[in-house]
TrEMBL record:
General function of this protein: Hydrolyzes diadenosine 5',5'''-P1,P4-tetraphosphate to yield ADP.
Native source organism of the sequence: Marinomonas mediterranea (strain ATCC 700492 / JCM 21426 / NBRC 103028 / MMB-1)
Pfam family, one: Metallophos
Name this protein carries in UniProt: Bis(5'-nucleosyl)-tetraphosphatase, symmetrical
Catalytic activity: P(1),P(4)-bis(5'-adenosyl) tetraphosphate + H2O = 2 ADP + 2 H(+)
UniProt KW keywords: Hydrolase
Gene3D superfamilies registered for this protein in UniProt: 3.60.21.10
Length: 270
């Protein structure tokens, strides 16, 4: 049995099927992890969402910012943006089942045997892996409760931009969500910066990639994340693995076999 973690799909089902052939994925033996942003921008969002859902417990998915955006649009808290390719999902006959499945996915997944932790954007320097899971669960519980609409209505926003144990209510949930689904650059004290989206050299003075800082409390989990295509898969950190290699932008779709950290990749058409 092997476990493969796969980067951002963003509606690119054809490259996913090619990659699954390449790794000779067997649903009877193997497991798949997806680093979030299953949908949007790419050509086959509806088909991709249906396919990953159909994998059932063979697939572990963490939510990305695009997945949360879809939930907000579906539930009437946001409107489609110019580059969104979500209309076919909104009009699909199975949209309610897809939405229910999506809103019950986690924001953080930890495997205590393989010693891996996965979120869409990463882990801020101020948290260890166990804290990350605990804070993620606060958002997950909200998405699975009748408070989901209260949260999605105020989910968007860059403030507060720094963790504080004393944060409460929706500010607390928004801050956790921003760390786990939108983070790229921050300060050593985990204050977020949202403007730069290019590679590490695009950092504004005083900010650096979240993974460039020593974590406040070191632990022995390797980190898997997606979200940041401009890294082109490189963090130059042995235990931090960037899996978004820009499939939807004509890059590649990447999988890592967790048991031995072997990388597999398939080119994506532009
Ligand atoms: Mn993302």
């Amino acid at each position: 049995m092997s476990t493969y973690a796969i980067g951002d799909l963003q509606g690119c089902l054809t490259p996913l099927l090619t990659l699954l052939d390449l790794i000779e994925f067997s649903p009877d033996k193997d497991r798949l992890w997806f680093a979030g942003d299953l949908i949007n921008r790419g050509p086959e969002s509806l088909e991709t969402l249906r396919f990953v859902k159909s994998l059932g417990d063979k697939a572990t998915v963490v939510l990305g910012n695009h997945d949360l955006h879809l939930l907000a649009v579906m539930r009437g808290h946001a409107s489609l943006k110019r580059n969104d390719t979500l209309a076919d999902i909104l009009l699909s006959e199975d949209r309610d089942e897809l939405m229910e499945w999506l809103q019950s996915r986690p924001l953080c997944h930890i495997d205590n045997v393989l010693k891996f932790v996965m979120t869409h954007a990463g882990i801020p320097p101020c948290w260890d892996s166990i804290e990350t899971q605990r804070y993620a669960q606060e958002v997950e519980r909200t998405l699975s409760s009748d408070r989901i609409d209260d949260f999605l209505a105020v989910m968007y926003g860059n403030k507060p931009d720094q963790w504080d144990d004393n944060l409460i209510g929706m500010d607390r949930l928004r801050t956790i969500t921003n760390y786990l689904t939108r983070m790229r650059f921050c300060t050593e004290s985990s204050q977020l910066e949202f403007k730069s989206k290019e590679g590490p050299t695009s950092a504004i003075s005083g900010y650096a990639p979240w993974f460039s800082y020593p974590r406040k409390k070191a632990d022995d989990y390797d980190v898997i994340f997606g979200h940041w295509a401009a890294l082109e898969g490189n963090t130059y950190k042995e235990h931090i693995h960037a899996l978004d290699t820009g499939c939807v932008w004509g890059g590649a779709l990447t999988a890592m076999r967790l048991e031995d950290k072997t990388l597999y990749s398939t080119p994506c058409p532009t």
